[in-house]
Amino acid sequence: MTRKSAVASASRVTRRTTLQMLAGTAAGALLPAFHVDAAPLKYELRPQKLDDGIWLIAGAQEAITATNGGAIANVVIFDTTAGAVIVDTGPSKRYGEQLSAVARELTGKDIARVYLTHIHPDHVFGNQAFDPVTIAATAEVAKGLKEMGEGYADAMYRTAGDWMRGTELVLPKTTIKSGVEDFGNRRIRMLAMRGHTDSDLVLFDERSGFLIASDLVFIDRAPTTPNANLEHWRIALANLGGIPHRRLIPGHGPAEDSARGIEDTRNWLGTVEDVIRSAFEKGLDVTEAIALPLPAWTDRIKLARYEYERSVMHLYPKLEAEKLPNVGKRS
Predict the structure, then answer these.
(1) Can you list the domains of the chain with their CATH numbers?
(2) Tens of pLDDT, residues 139-154
(3) H-assigned helices in the chain
(4) Closest CA to 203 of 322, 39, 85
(5) Containing H/E element for 86?
(6) 241 contacts 262 by C-beta, under 8 angstroms
(7) Would you say 118 and 196 are in contact if contact means Cβ atoms under 8 Å apart?
(8) What is the pLDDT of residues 279-317, one digit of tens each?
(9) Phi then psi dihedrals of residue 79, to 5 deg
């Protein structure tokens, strides 16, 4: 066995069996959040009909926990004459299986296409429930999942616990670029953008005028920034604002007919960047920066403090690399 396969095997054993093994040892008492019999292990998927042949399964406006099983991202289902079209697959095999069943029940058809909008695990680990040929993503998303997917899976197993049982990374088999896919009575325009991650797929349904903005837009919930480029993100938001649409569906939060989500996301990014950059320029350390107050308007944004603190941890090292001299570099 090669070192790579040994590491992969150990990783799979850890994710699949740690909970079961710990349940029979004293160490199991140290993991109260992961009690195997504490969770119902069934996601409550409640499709909300947005329009004729369009449903939203809303994610919880929360961080990923062993209580919500990682079901925090929005998922969209379209009915087309070619079959059901699904946008993102959720956080686990169990979620994907339930999602597949719901989509077939709603549409009365097989799955024609599954779009992955970006690499984050709450959007992609339900892939196992679908034929990989139907799963479509940009080349950058496929590459990112291949490089970072196992690490994301490990993190999900640690955080979501037994909800992840049996979940393994499945890569998309169909590569897409900007363009249009025709599903008979519905044409979906694919728009490759970036900012939240290196590749963020936006989808526009020409029939309904619905714009699926993925995690480029958060509504009533603070955006996440672990893989963000804020400059690129602001450009993407400007581009989204220039697309005439009837309703916008964010990656997290309610579908709305207004541009509020775009504005709030832009304001959040600007606020976070200003506060963090000011703290850095004042010479504050990370702990001091984390403790700084946020503007009063962020009080209505769920997880504002939590995501701000995470953003400090993500962005401070970037500022240090950008601003501080490299003492080991020769002139």
Answers:
(1) 42-258 (3.60.15.10), 271-323 (no CATH)
(2) 999 999 999 999 999 9
(3) 3-23, 93-107, 121-124, 139-160, 230-241, 260-281, 286-290, 304-323
(4) 85
(5) strand 83-87
(6) yes
(7) yes
(8) 999 999 999 999 999 999 999 999 999 999 999 999 998
(9) -100, 125
